[in-house]
């Protein structure tokens, strides 16, 4: 209803209050309507929003295609597991482990960025893809001679987020409502997701964000403006990776268990898809993309039940069908909304730039003629 | 008088081809210096050597006494030497104002923390940046057009925007690579006016041009390149009478 939206737009305070109320009530609405399992899905939605926003800094803002992003998620998760689980017998508090994880991931982001600075487009994508796989394979094999990662079995019994006697893992009763573990994590994740959205938005509209956009548009011209393209690219890699590391630490403590298979290439690609589907470079778009691509696959898990209800038997494996529908959705999207569901102003122009291209061609014609 | 930019016996080879051979020239502070020569004479090559896109094979380039021939492009800009491009290289999908604000990068210092927290200092800096960018747009004759997309501006305005963007780095020396290419005579006159206005504002100009008439009318001194060598240097009057120049470049025209 556009009229209702317009009405709200003129009352931003009310709109924000309604949004806040909705976000606070959401786990209970979802829990009551769809079952407690969906509250967990909600938690994962928030983790993926954080990841997508982090990757968007690298891909959407700075234009550097990174196919190994999940490696930073893995680093954050493993660091949390090492510093807060019986695996090494360390139980450091989360407020120490999470920043360390984000910092470590950021450092690795810069380390990955450094040798790949000269690469662009496809070549960069291939190197980052390799990096993602290397991290996963390391995690899979670093159980001998010294057991660091516990190999494919992964690390178990990771500490929940805990402050004094209060743990997010044990249910709490408040105002007559039962807050279970997924509910409690939801509020933590929500706060941190809002923080990452805030940081990403502020960065975009700043000197740094403009420098990223400039190297995305034309690296040579950006350097001619005095922008140190090396440092500013490394900064994009490090910032994006730090967001990934933070999300990884949260994931580890939420699940209580991590293993290398959670960090495969498909995950990197999924996060990239969230950005592309939602609208590269545009935070609302990225959030929408992350929500859709986390919720839809969960909803499609019930394809088997639906087939049984309609056909009386399962004709196509629900998992295959899920991927098929997903692929189809991506193809349709690229055909009809190539700039994403909610494209940024900039991407919109790029994709609608037939006249722009004509102008550019005209310009180069002028130059060669003169 | 101390030269602002001195090019000292510079050579540049691409494989077996000597694009520049033993080229020396000196641009003095406050003047308009023209670099002309026929197609393929090595003008743009020299230009790219000076601005750090190419590394020289021999010789040295100094800006106010500091060697810049080994420096990265962004370092050279920081030393006060800005440039435009022969094929306009604007950030086409950013607005005109944003383009100029990118040029403010080196004159500002807000980091990640400042950008996120947006304290009074970074807010003031952002405001100052915007104001300066608007001033520069007005200076080049694009007042009120900052909100439009750079790529959608007409050709002549794009050239002007590129100049405004380069000026945003507050250069002492501004090098323009064929800034009037593809313009009609009245647009060329307007651009020439802008160049004089720039000189009067205290910016030393290095002009690389095909348009001999414009260069001769505008420049204090001119150097002529041919086949990678400097064949003449002097005031427009001297150069115009130079037999080597007439032979190589101006032909029967002079």
Structural class of chain A: mainly alpha
Low-pLDDT stretches of chain A are: 354-370
The percent range for strand residues of chain A is under 5%
How many structurally independent domains of chain A?
Answer: 1
Give the overall pLDDT of chain B as a whole number: 90
Main sheet of chain B: which strands, in order across? Answer: 6-7-8-3-9-10
CATH topology label of chain A: ABC transporter involved in vitamin B12 uptake, BtuC
Question: Main beta sheet of chain B: strand number and arrangement?
Answer: 6 strands, mixed
- Helix- and strand-based class of chain B? alpha/beta
Report the order of strands and helices of chain A.
HHHHEEHHEEEEHHHHHHHHHH
Strand order of the largest sheet of chain A: 1-2
How do the SSEs of chain B run, as a string of H and E?
EEEHEEHEHHHHEHEHEEHH
Write down how many β-strands of chain A occur, each being a DSSP E stretch of 2 or more residues: 6
Mean pLDDT, all residues of chain A: 86
Most extensive interface: pair and counts? A-B, 41 and 52 residues
Would you tell me which CATH topology of the largest domain in chain B applies? Rossmann fold
Q: Could you describe the 3D structure shown?
A:
The complex is a heterodimer of chains A (370) and B (254). Chain A has 370 residues and is mainly alpha-helical. Chain A has one domain (8-354): Orthogonal Bundle (ABC transporter involved in vitamin B12 uptake, BtuC). Chain A has 16 helices and 6 strands. Chain A has helices at 2-9, 12-34, 37-61, 70-83, 94-116, 121-141, 181-204, 207-217, 219-224, 229-255, 265-278, 283-300, 303-311, 318-336, 345-351, 354-369; strands at 84-85, 90-91, 162-163, 166-167, 172-174, 177-179. In chain A, the strands form 3 sheets. Chain A has a two-stranded antiparallel sheet with strand order 1-2. In chain A, strands 3-4 form a two-stranded antiparallel sheet. In chain A, a hairpin with a 2-residue loop joins strand 3 and strand 4 (166-167). In chain A, helix 3 runs antiparallel to helix 10 and helix 11 (265-278) crosses helix 12 (283-300). Chain B has 254 residues and is an alpha/beta fold. Chain B folds into 2 domains: 1-80 and 171-254, Rossmann fold (3-Layer(aba) Sandwich), CATH 3.40.50.300; 89-170, 3-Layer(aba) Sandwich (Rossmann fold). Chain B has a 6-stranded mixed β-sheet with strand order 6-7-8-3-9-10, sandwiched between helices. Chain B is globular and about 60 Å long. Chain B starts with a strand and ends with a helix. At the A-B interface, helix 7, helix 8, helix 9, helix 10 and helix 15 of A face helix 2, helix 3, helix 4, helix 5 and helix 6 of B.
